[in-house]
UniProtKB/TrEMBL annotation:
This is Copper-sensitive operon repressor. The lineage of its organism: Bacteria, Bacillati, Bacillota, Clostridia, Lachnospirales. InterPro entries: Metal_Tscrpt_repr (IPR003735), Metal_Tscrpt_repr_sf (IPR038390). Residues 1-25 are annotated as: Disordered. Pfam families: Trns_repr_metal. GO terms for molecular function: DNA binding; metal ion binding. Residues 1-17 have a biased composition (Basic and acidic residues). GO terms for biological process: negative regulation of DNA-templated transcription.
């Protein structure tokens, strides 16, 4: 049985994280991530932020999807520059919009599976409110 001994530096770091709202999670699969919940008071004009610093299993897939969408968009730009038919350009733009929407769905699913579950378990109602706002913005 291994015994973990905390150093003063580790204890101070944990205390700082606690004060700042940052905390680290380790999933069963070994994925380590850190996130924090920052809240804005009613008299402040800065919007609430639910910051995350972590990596999910789908991060690479999301990056690949975004890279493909960027490449596709660049090819559409070349189509416009070369004077291609407007109908062809619109069809390709529609494909990019669908790719971006599908990428958003992957991110949303990932957020629900990894972040929202933690928020619900810890009683963080602000994270749930933020998700609702993000969904509203996403589906506009």
């Amino acid at each position: 049985m291994a015994v973990s001994r905390e150093t003063d530096e580790e204890r101070n770091s944990e205390a700082q994280e606690h004060l700042s709202g940052a905390h680290t999670h380790v999933r069963e699969d070994g994925t380590v991530y850190e996130h924090m919940h920052m809240h804005v008071h009613e008299n402040e004009s800065v919007p609430h932020s639910h910051g995350h610093v972590h990596s999910h299993e789908s991060t690479k897939a999301v990056i690949n999807r975004l890279s493909r969408a960027i490449g596709h968009l660049e090819s559409i730009k070349r189509m416009v520059e070369s004077g291609r038919d407007c109908s062809e350009v619109l069809i390709q733009l529609s494909a990019v919009k669908a790719a971006i929407n599908n990428t958003g769905k992957v991110i949303l699913h990932d957020h629900i599976q990894h972040c929202l579950i933690d928020a619900v378990e810890s009683g963080d109602t602000q994270a749930i409110e933020e998700l609702n706002k993000a969904i509203d913005r996403f589906i506009k």
